[in-house]
Amino acid sequence: MITLGEYIIEKQQDFPEASGELSSLLSSILLATKVVNREINKAGLVDIIGATGVENIQGEVQQKMDLYANETFKAALEARGEVCGIASEEEDEFIIFDSERGVNSKYVVLMDPLDGSTNIDVNVSVGTIFSIYRRVSPQGKQTTLEDFLQPGHCQVAAGYVVYGSSTMLVYTTGHGVHGFTCDPSLGVFYLSHENIRIPESGQTYSINEGNYLKFPDGVKKYLKFCQEIDQPTNRPYTSRYIGSLVSDFHRNLLKGGIYIYPSTASTPKGKLRLLYECNPMAFLVEQAGGKASDGFKRIMDIEPTELHQRVPFFCGSTNMVEKAETMMEQYSPESKTTTESEKAKKLIA
Ligand code: AHM
Ligand code: MG
User: Fold this and answer.
1) Residue spans of the chain under pLDDT 50
2) In order of start, what are the domains of the chain with their CATH numbers?
3) Quick check: CB of 243 below 6 Å from ligand 1?
């Protein structure tokens, strides 16, 4: 039985030039994960569920556990001194760690500390998503916004924790995707899923169909395709939507499937955040042999323009994502997200 700590050190030895900072950074994420996991397991017994009454910058009501998870990850990352700053879905602006170690470190972390947190009140799985980049600003100086606005293909590592029927941490450093399951009696994560590969095709689609009438035509057509009866391709597919991205993603990663959060008439850019949710999941799915796009182009090639940027998200088994993309191109070419032209417009303004 290999523990996550042992695995990280073992893998570091494959890279003679590695200084150990990334390993240490992953260990601080692991430590915070254990603390958050312990609290989540007590939800229902102590007063940690429910809303705080405060809204985050995106106008969403923060849950008590959102704030607890945010503070825990922030504290763990700052204490180790392996990052020069973080950006979080729960923070308006990025946070600078300006201790001597912080300023001299070479990484930034972007995270959604507790994804799907509204589910916690009803005991449904929630998750943590993280993404690590090497800074582009000079070491020795305070981190700047450009360290956080890097395209997803620059990620050094990414991962998630799913607080489910068991707690699992799944991560990649660009050399495959590996999953570790927590033994709750010891609080230790053991390697349980080495080198995860997502099936090229799956039988599951995950989307909030309550928004059907507001979907672009390309998505409507794709859903009809999923529901058609066609024995050779095992259709109709099964619909599964937990409403907790990490859990929906995790199931599709292991079994094959597609997760879609498209643009809708009321949310033209979709709901999910490029930096905290889509890029890390895109890195993971690609490392597992799958695909992630905004319906037209690769998620990890999008040049971010702002921290809390949203983007439509199509992610999962390659054949399924490609089929959905074909239908978007054919029936909804007008919904092409024009990140580049938006950038140009901003510059002109
Ligand atoms: P959150 O980060 O505020 O929790 O929102 C993200 C969540 C995802 O986990 C989930 O897939 C999606 O929002 C569900 O949204 P909806 O309720 O609109 O289907
Ligand atoms: Mg989220």
Assistant:
1) none
2) 4-193 (3.30.540.10), 204-344 (3.40.190.80)
3) yes
